[in-house]
Structures are given as C-alpha cells and as structure tokens.
Specification:
By secondary structure, this protein is of the alpha/beta class. Helices cover about 35% and strands about 25% of the residues. It has 9 helices and 10 strands. The protein has helices at about 40-50, 70-75, 90-100, 110-115, 135-145, 165-175, 190-195, 215-220, 225-235, and strands at about 5-10, 15-25, 30-35, 55-60, 65, 75-80, 150-155, 180-185, 200-205, 205-210. Strands 6-7-8-3-9-10 form a 6-stranded mixed sheet, sandwiched between helices. Helix 3 packs parallel to helix 5. It is globular, with a radius of gyration of 18 Å. The mean pLDDT is about 90.
C-alpha cells in the first residue's frame, strides 16, 4: 500500500477533535477524490499526511515508511490551496526550484509542453509577483505534474483557475503513470467525477463514505447526491 493512514485522531490546541479514529489507504495508481463540507477535516488530514502538522495519535506510512522519514517525504508532492509562491522567482525558476528540492532535473521538453498547454508559454520567464491568482495556481500544477512523485496531493489548488486549465488538468491526471497515485481535494464534483476512480467523503472528522466512482454512479447517481446524503446523515437529530 502506498499510503496507509491508521487510527488517526487530531485536535488543535484546546479545541474539540477535528479527526476521529480515521483510517484510509491508497494504492499505487489510484485516483482518489476527497470531499466534504467546510470544517470536516479534509485539509487537516492532508497536512498531517504532508507532515505539516504534528501527528500525536495514530500512524501514517508512505511507501511502507513512517511519514516523517525523509525517504517517505520524497515520495510525496503536496500542492496547497494557497498561492504563496516566492515572488522574486519566475515561473520557470519556481519549477526548477521544486525539482531541486527532490534532487531531480526537470524534463525540459515536457516542461515547455506543459507551459504551452496551460497557456503560460509567453509568461514563464516573468516574475511570479506579476502573475494573477490563476496563473500562480497553474505554475503549482505544472510543477507537481512534472515531478511525478509516487503520491501527488492537491488540496483545492484548482479553485480560481480558468475552465481551460481545469480541462487540461483532467488530461494531465489521466496521463500520470500507472504507479502514481493522486489524492485530489476539491468542491468541484464534476472535476472529481472526471479524474477520480474513488471518492472519500469526510463529515465531522470521520469517513462517511469511501466508494468506487462506478458504485456511486450506480447507487447514488452522482458525487453531488452522495455528499448531500452524507451531510444530511451527519446533522444532529432534533429531540423535539
């Protein structure tokens, strides 16, 4: 198993728990969508996997190793929901920098192709400080796709990008190697249905559903309907 999250619990200081005894596995090559209402624990779970929050209860293993190990972290590329990029770099320099973090050299021909496909070819040598929000998101996606780590995690990064970029990401996700897993957190149900083969729904810090997309379509009709059902079931019942 590439990712193994086991019995994870988490609470921010002096607050109620955000995650409750949560377990999740992702195999190589799986495309998993993570969805749920705001405050359900999605970003907390992702930050724990990426070792950006300290894990206190439970375990997380990546490629068989504890997630804090350097070799484990090198198996993951995490793309955050924000667009806080080094503004003194050009888009091209940012992609190069990300590759150096992993001790890799970017494939120049493929990099040129990705900048073209995301309509960034004429802006790749401009400073990031001059980029729009959507352009910064595109550069993050380009870097993550080019790195081709065993596990790519995307946390609502695609919010705010144009329709052409969304369709291009769908294409890029389908072109990922068979051994590369994707964990995609998004509120865009159409995107999840286009890219993922499995959907995990979080509600109130617990997994409400973890189903193959084919079964969701057969039994619920759509991811939208599944999420509505999960949210409805998680609401406190009136005692009146």
């Amino acid at each position: 198993m590439l990712l193994d999250v086991s019995a994870v619990e988490f609470a921010y200081a002096k607050r109620a728990p955000v995650l409750h005894d949560l377990s999740l596995t992702i195999a190589p090559g799986e495309r998993v969508g993570l969805v749920g209402p705001n405050g359900s624990g999605k970003s907390t779970l992702i930050r724990l996997i990426a070792d950006l929050l300290q894990l206190r209860h439970g375990s997380i293993r990546i490629a068989g190793l504890p997630h804090q190990d350097r070799a484990s972290r090198e198996s993951v590329v995490y793309v955050a929901s924000n667009d806080y990029l080094p503004q003194f770099l050009t888009g091209r320099e940012y992609v190069d920098l990300m590759h150096r973090f992993y001790g890799r050299e970017p494939d120049t021909a493929r990099l040129d192709d990705l900048f073209s496909r995301y309509q960034m070819k004429s802006r790749q040598f401009d400073l990031i400080e001059d980029y729009s929000h959507g352009m910064r998101k595109k550069v993050q996606i380009i870097a993550s796709l080019l790195l081709e780590r065993p596990l790519t995690i995307i946390d609502e990064t695609l919010n705010g990008v144009d329709v052409d970029a969304l369709y291009e990401f769908e294409r890029g996700a389908r072109e990922l190697g068979q051994d590369i897993a994707l964990l995609l957190c998004s509120h865009d149900f159409r995107l999840l249905e286009a890219v993922c083969d499995r959907i995990v729904v979080l509600c109130r810090g617990e997994i409400a559903y973890d189903l193959p997309l084919s079964r969701i379509n057969e039994e619920h009709g759509s991811v939208d309907e599944l999420v509505k059902r999960a949210i409805s079931a998680s609401q406190p019942r009136s005692t009146s």
